[in-house]
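Narrative of accomplishments. A recurring question from our advisory board has been how the design workflow behaves on a single, concrete structure rather than in aggregate. To address it, we present the structure tokens for one chain from the evaluation set, followed by the sequence designed for it. No filtering or post-editing was applied between the two.
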């Protein structure tokens, strides 16, 4: 008779040990959580606290605190009056901010390192990324970021944060402009995306074969003196045509209609044909996306399946997983701009996710083995959208989420739905807060090491909990 109780206590202990309370605080007048920054590569979360000022849409930030996954807290700044916080991709302790101005959309800004500001930088100075000493911008000779590689050279601008002196560096061997556009599908202009690392930056472009069944991803790596240090090619062929989705890989356009809240998302370039994820530890690269109807030679077909492919850094294919998805909702989805795909990894799994934010209410997820690529878990989750959003509530609330399941008071985001379905300790914790009388809003953030859950009722409290991957 004692065994069931013993096992219950044992399981409860396991679930409790799989999670850590990072911070839990009540809302205090003029000192509430305003927003957050997730530093995925270092597995840290930053909370910005302060107050709302009358009818201003700007949030007045007083303090910025950084938390590690073991709940260690670092105060980055306190007793400040700031707005528009942005963290550096190159140094996770460096951030950019403007002095608070209630009625201004944008102002001059400073770079903060260990709580100390740089000289004032004019708001007209564009940048792609920054560190404690410099801002960096990729642009043409006139500092225009929209590059025509047929006619223009590409430059790296290095702007000193202290003196505002600007160094203009020509990018050597601009390989992108040597591509013969007629050899590829409807390629009128070559677009690229840039990614900045501590010791180098890279230009990324993608090309699609005329039959739409082959996609080639190019990465060109340069040091901060503009010299090319390496290049990699990842070629992938399917039996079905590649199609574009809203995956973060390219640029988008947005069209709204009078007397309607619906926004149609369109594709500006072919970079949205797929996206990729780099494992910072191994430098392996995961390319993912959706494909369309077989023998349809264009990139706008309705989706019929998905692919995830793992390459080593040099471009050798390690494994490829392609699978049809026979689902009426997905197969009939007519506006791929509102169909999202994303991917994250942990120490043993690759998690590929497909979800819709408009028109249809579903989330698919596929869990693949990191080493071999075989499917180890998958599901389709349906939800109801809580249509609560208003402009003012959106600018006053700490976080908002809209996905409802099981008629509870909890409102999920897409990642939250996935981990509620596949992570038992995450699910057990969510179930423990279902009794709340007020709606509870959740944001879910995932790194390779673990899962961060932000919860709040946007009135009385907020809490951050960290979960281990299972």
């Amino acid at each position: 008779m004692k065994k069931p109780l013993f096992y219950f206590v044992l399981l409860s202990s396991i679930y409790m040990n799989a999670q850590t309370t990072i911070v839990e605080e009540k809302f205090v007048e003029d000192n509430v959580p305003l927003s957050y920054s997730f530093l995925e590569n270092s597995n840290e979360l930053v909370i910005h606290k302060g107050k709302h000022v009358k009818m201003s849409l700007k949030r007045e930030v007083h303090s910025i605190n950084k938390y590690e996954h073991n709940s260690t807290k670092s105060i980055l700044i306190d007793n400040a009056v700031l707005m528009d916080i942005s963290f550096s991709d190159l140094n996770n302790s460096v951030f950019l901010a403007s002095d608070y101005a209630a009625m201004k959309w944008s102002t001059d800004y400073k770079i903060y390192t260990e709580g100390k500001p740089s000289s004032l930088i004019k708001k007209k100075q564009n940048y792609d990324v920054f560190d404690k000493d410099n801002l960096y911008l990729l642009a043409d000779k006139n500092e225009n970021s929209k590059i025509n590689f047929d006619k223009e050279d590409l430059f790296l601008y290095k702007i000193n944060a202290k003196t505002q002196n600007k160094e203009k560096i020509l990018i050597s061997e601009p390989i992108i402009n040597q591509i013969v556009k007629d050899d590829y599908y409807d390629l009128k202009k070559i677009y690229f995306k840039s990614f900045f690392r501590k010791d180098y930056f890279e230009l990324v472009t993608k090309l699609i074969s005329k039959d739409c069944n082959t996609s080639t991803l190019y990465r060109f790596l340069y040091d901060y003196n503009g010299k090319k240090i390496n290049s990699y090619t990842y070629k992938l062929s399917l039996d079905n045509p590649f199609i574009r989705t809203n995956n973060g890989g390219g640029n988008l356009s947005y069209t709204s209609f009078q007397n309607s809240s619906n926004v149609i998302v369109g594709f500006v370039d072919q970079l949205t044909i797929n996206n990729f994820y780099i494992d910072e530890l191994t430098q392996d690269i995961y390319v993912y996306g959706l494909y369309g109807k077989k023998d349809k030679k264009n990139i706008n077909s309705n989706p019929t399946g998905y692919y995830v492919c793992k390459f080593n850094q040099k471009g050798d294919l390690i494994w490829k997983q392609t699978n049809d998805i026979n689902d009426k909702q997905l197969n009939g989805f007519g506006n791929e701009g509102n169909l999202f795909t994303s991917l994250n990894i942990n120490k043993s799994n690759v998690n590929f996710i497909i979800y819709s934010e408009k028109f249809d209410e579903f989330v698919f997820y596929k869990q693949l083995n990191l080493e071999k690529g075989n499917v180890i878990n998958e599901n389709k989750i349906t939800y109801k959208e809580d249509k609560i959003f208003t402009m003012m509530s959106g600018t006053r609330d700490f976080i908002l989420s809209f996905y409802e399941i099981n008629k509870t008071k909890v409102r999920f985001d897409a990642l939250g739905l996935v981990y509620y379905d596949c992570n038992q300790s995450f699910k057990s914790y969510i179930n423990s807060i279902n009794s709340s009388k007020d709606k509870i809003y959740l944001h879910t953030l995932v790194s390779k090491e673990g899962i961060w859950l932000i919860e709040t009722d946007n009135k009385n409290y907020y809490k951050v909990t960290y979960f281990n991957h299972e």
